[in-house]
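The instructor's notes for this session suggest beginning with a concrete chain rather than abstract definitions. Hand out the sequence below and ask the class to guess, before any prediction is shown, which regions might be ordered.
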Amino acid sequence: MPYVPNTDNDRRMMLERIGVADIEELFSGIPEELRLKRPLDIPSTPEMTLLREIETLSNENNTGLICFAGGGLYDHFIPAAVGTIINRPEFMTAYTPYQAEVAQGTLQVIYEFQSHICRLTGMHVANASMYDGATAAAEAIILSTNVTRRGKVLLSETVSPLYREVIKTYLSGRDVELVTVPMKDGLTDVEGLISAIDDATACVLLAQPNFFGLLEEVEDVAEATHKVGGKLVMAVDPIAQAILKTPGEYGADIVVGEGQPLGMPVSFGGPLLGFFAAKKELVRYMPGRIASRTKDVDGKTGFVLTLQTREQHIRREKATSNICTNQALCATAASVYLTLLGKAGLEQVALLSAEKAQQTSQSLFELDGFEPYFKAPFVREFAVKTPVPAQKVILSLVKHGVLGGVNAGRWYKGLDNCLIVAVTEKRTTEEIQLLVGGLKELA
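After discussion, reveal the predicted structure:
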């Protein structure tokens, strides 16, 4: 956005139009203890100089490192058409569609996004997107407790620790017992989890693949959960879903995940895109908005917001969620990305990522001191046992222009020598060799 300063006269005219005497009166509703009592000390800078400083800051979003880090966000190739389409003013400037009759394009894109998510997950219905995968997971748990009227929630330690932190925050003001089931060799301890399931269980949350990139055994957990009337919630990777069994086939009741890999850059972790899908019997309990296709009085196809049960202006204290908007522009990017690639293209991205991950892991495990941390099958992300702390490995690889992975020890006690490496279709043979070469030098 161009830098447009407000003159003293501009501010005076705005205050007059609002009907207040000065800035102090405008901010009078803000408690004194929350108000800044000192000047911001922003220098009077020429526009050209200011723009140069802002550009320098924005360039920090691009580290120039070859990215082998994952942990929920992944560096996939984004077709140029994605940016071209979402930067059209009809999409870029459109706000969330409260007035359906003037937002047909936005509503159609949302409807297409929901359709894509339903196909990926094998679920009956999806909403118009959410803030991110972590908040979507928390909302899925809240839905489960509301529907079952139970207060016990089980989640595996192999679910992303970032998801678990957000879930803990969301549930902090609720009468809910949150039980984290310890992992075993990088996977959910299925026996321990099943033994913890009882008649008080509202839901069980599993990730597929899990935080270490490993494939979980879901069937027995699904059966045990449904046997007591609980809900199975699955957090999934949308790219991997193209080549894996769908959560619907596993018997999941609710599916959530992070949509960033679908046409959005990593960009220091934001903005993100949460998706949320469920079985049709849960549709009226779902958070967020749902767009649908219908026909008007003349028989013409149109799009409407069918359900807005989360809306405080409609349901007040009975609203299903406190989420106050969907990620409409990010959902548009995901819709464009999925439409451009299609089923075959998405499968190719997933397969190339998996093949390159296998190639990378084989090369790494041939190095002295580097070996698999866990034995279970993986898709495009895997854990490496390093001869020195993983954080030291990461810092060493930066000198080679490589972001080598994620340090599992940041969240898991005793895993300081566990480096989680993610590989996408974007990584070339030369880039993989650069990673291997950097680790070989370290070894």
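Then share the key points. Residues 328-364 form the longest helix (37 residues). The mean pLDDT is 90.
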